[in-house]
């Protein structure tokens, strides 16, 4: 299986529509890949909080339309990163979109863990409540977004729902890049799954981005890692290795759930 992670740079001086066209062109260039992944909030910038409301789109907005066509033109499964979604009956959401090779929407995932504590995304956007997995021809993918990476229980939930490959889009800051690499490898090891984590390059609202998109195998080995700038990271991997790893080292079978709390 071939995956291409498009680590696009977000420059606040570039109009959103220009970046949308550029991202679509980059997707089309990946014809021949099986799965293409874009980063989190690449239309606005993950830290451009003051632009979330003005740049928010309905689910089937301009980014949806551009990415659906790009997926169809390239004939690829496309994780189109995430957009600020404006729900007409609710708050904004940080919503990622997965398209089939014919350009149909296979799934939408609303980010569950919002970053910012008492500011930024945490107060500007609503929280999703549903885990999302999708069956591709060669693997079942589980979807996650950026700050989700710090919460292992979410990924265990995806594994319990059948995920074999964990696909994550992010706008991760440079100052915490070591966490990014460490946590991507940890999620791969503990869940015995491939991790495909795509971040942004550039600077969002004065926050330099980490880049370093990464692909990790179920044993925790890094198969490929990008640098800090804009690039396309392409890697071939065998998704069957997930089940082989789980059979050869069946640690997931030893999970102990429902433990009682400590006695007072």
Automatic annotation (TrEMBL):
- Database matches in InterPro entries: C-N_Hydrolase, C-N_Hydrolase_sf, UPF0012_CS
Gene Ontology molecular function: any one: hydrolase activity
First and last residue of the signal peptide: none
User: Which UniProt keywords are listed?
Assistant: Hydrolase
Pfam families, alphabetized: CN_hydrolase (PF00795)
Q: Where is the CN hydrolase domain?
A: 1-239
Give the stretches traversing the membrane. none
Please give the family membership noted in the entry: Belongs to the carbon-nitrogen hydrolase superfamily. NIT1/NIT2 family.
Its recorded name reads Hydrolase
Annotated organism of origin: Streptomyces naganishii JCM 4654
């Amino acid at each position: 299986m071939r995956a291409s992670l498009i680590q696009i740079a977000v420059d606040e001086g570039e109009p959103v529509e220009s970046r949308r066209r550029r991202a679509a062109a980059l997707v089309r260039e990946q014809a021949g890949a099986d799965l293409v992944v874009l980063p989190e909030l690449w239309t606005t910038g993950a830290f451009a909080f003051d632009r979330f409301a003005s740049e928010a789109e309905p689910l089937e907005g301009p980014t949806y339309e551009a990415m659906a066509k790009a997926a169809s033109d390239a004939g690829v499964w496309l994780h189109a990163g995430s957009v600020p979604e404006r729900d007409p009956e609710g708050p904004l959401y940080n919503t990622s979109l997965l398209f089939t090779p014919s350009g149909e929407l296979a799934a939408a995932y609303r980010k569950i863990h919002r970053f910012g504590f008492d500011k930024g995304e945490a107060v500007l956007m609503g929280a999703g409540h549903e885990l999302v997995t999708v069956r591709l021809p060669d693997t079942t993918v589980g979807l996650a977004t950026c700050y989700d990476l710090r919460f292992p229980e979410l990924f265990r939930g995806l594994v319990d729902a059948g995920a074999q490959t964990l696909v994550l889009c992010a706008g991760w800051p440079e100052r915490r890049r070591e966490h990014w690499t460490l946590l991507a490898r940890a999620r791969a090891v503990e869940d015995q799954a491939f991790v495909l984590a795509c971040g942004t390059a550039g600077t969002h609202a004065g926050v330099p981005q980490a880049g370093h998109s990464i692909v990790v195998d179920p044993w925790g080995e890094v198969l490929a890692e990008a640098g800090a700038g804009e690039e396309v990271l392409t890697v071939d991997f065998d998704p069957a290795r997930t089940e082989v790893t789980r059979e050869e080292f069946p640690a997931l079978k030893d999970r102990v759930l429902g433990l009682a709390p400590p006695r007072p």
